[in-house]
Amino acid sequence: MADTGFVPLPQGAGYAVVLGLGAVFAFGMMLTTYLLKRYNKEIITAEEFATAGRSVKSGLISAAVVSSWTWAATLLTSTTQVYKNGIFGSCSYAFGATVQITLFASLAIKAKERAPSARTYLEIVRARYGTVTHMIYIFWGLATNILVTAMLLTGGSATICDLTGMHPVAACLLVGLSPTVYSVFGGLKATILTDYAHTVIMLIVILIFGFSTWATNHKLGSASVVWDLIKQVGETRPVEGNHNGSYLTFHSRSGGIFFVINIVGNFGTVFLDNGYFNKAFAADPKSAYKGYILGSLAWLPIPAFCSLTMGFAALALEQTEYWPLGRAMTADEVAKGLVLPNASTALLGKGGAVLSLVMIYMAVTSAMSSELIAVSTICTYDIYRTYINPNATGKKLIWISHLSCGAFAYIMAGFAIGLYYANVSMGFLYELMGIIIGGAVLSSAMTILSSKQNWYSATFTPPIATGLAIMSWLVCTKTKFGAITYANLFEDDAMLTGNVVALLFPLITVPLFTFVFKPQNFDWKLLETRITKVSEEEELREAEGAGEDSESPDPEKLEPVKSPISVIASQLVDDAERERYSAEQIQLRKAFKRTVLVCVSLTVALLVVWPMPLYGSKYIFSRHFFIGWVVVFFIWIWYTVFQVGIYPVWEGRKSLAHAMRGIYWDCTGQTWKLRAWQNAHPEEMHAVQSQIRAQLSAPQVVDGQYVHHIDDAISEEKS
Q1: The pTM is what?
Q2: Average pLDDT score over residue span 286-302
Q3: Domains in the chain, start-ordered, CATH in brackets?
């Protein structure tokens, strides 16, 4: 838009969204954190900050998965693919990026079963293979988070600049402010709740675009009209590599190449992104696999339907007087992901520009908050607690988590600014990520799934595969295009070569090293003793005692007393913990078999059964087939609305009712009723098992001595 001087919105609109709307969300999540603490007795300990109490239900998990997986690239790159390659572009993105979330459900179950106390998958790596391997996977894990966050900031800032004229440097610096604030205050729970709110807003915007394009807008208004216009565009501006140059066919050479690149790259960004493991460890055991499978099915229509709607709207309106640029977009503008904001402006004018601005901001900030928690957890538990201060208290770990969030946010802002001045686009980063991180996917998954993989396979596979992938990418670029330049490196064949080598070469090294150097035959029980939770007793005592007027006795002057009754109380809790853990393991093992069957079936359906016949037959969509196709995805997006918008509210209705009741009592001066109700219904309050144990076994002061309150312990144990 800079070439024409046309910007649909004033700069103030950009700052209003980035600062104003961001401040609203930051304040809202800080308020939510306070309300959860007051009415549901949630205390932000180190474990709670990193794992959200390990009790999040499937509805919120699926909403969090959908939000975290809906990046700026999800909306912008998928729309770009439709604009470039036609209808297969929407499915090459949606199908190619859904299977990873679906398959991850199996990994999530095994991680929870075998390492119940873990906060990151890197802790499992260290428990199995030691320091050297741990360091290698820290590098690849952080590289994943850096690439994803860089894509978020470059794509988001380019869109904000395109729509408002706001300087990209300002956008890079300010976009991350809001998610940093609420992530610091509320940890993973705040991130998950914000994910829910952001997803609902994004879905509302997508539905507005959908109704406008396919039903109500006078510029388009029906699938039949869009089909006529897209058919005409294919005749006047045919797509090279598509059957008959049509935009209405799955047979697309460039689309097929992107399909493979998308599959490869996204295995890395799911299986190596600690953000998805954060949510797996946060999930209630019954909810882990359901959340990921249902979340993947709810996520698929977001890129499929949004990109089909906005990509075809762009193609249909680009040569009309409604198009804001007054000319066709350049290749550089397309690579930056500016098809969607231009299409929204052409479709709905300034209102469409505002909607796309809000939608992209929601996508960027929700996914970025997940990345912030992922990185802070790695820095806190895999670096600080492991190598710097193994005896760190929970309060110290929370402080490190806060520091990590802020530091990573603004290091990445600086990195994104550098990418802007280097003119590196979001599309380039998206296709590059598989080359950089794909080599660690198989060995990291086998660390959790297979007891046979040995130290050599886990340690040497990532650097070897990544080195060969980069070499293949460069060699292909040089030999096929004559020179190694930015434009040539971005060519389909070069990117495809590097991505495929990265993902598939470990299929040689992992079994080869395991055979040559003998299987490890790891005992999974060792993970239970090598990965431990943080003691929360001190934090809980401080939180429970906050606001009390009485002065606590000096512990130095008091003699700890453990009566026989206190020993029995501690034993009761230990037994309860063991029974609960054993029951969870049985439950997870049973769920794993069902999950593998469902995941493999869905993967085959999405990668083979659905797209391949359409691709191989070279079928060009007829008018009626195209209308039916649009209707299917329109219905599917309503399932997404139910799964991630309505179901989490229904699932959490009791907690919401508790909070609303407490707010009413506070506002009407009946706070005593709140305290009485909480004392009478302790089982209704949020409690992590480790918190229960800490409260039961924490010594109390009686007559100048520490004793254990066994009455509370026994009554809690009976309940």
Answers
A1: 0.81
A2: 83
A3: 11-434+618-651 (1.20.1730.10)
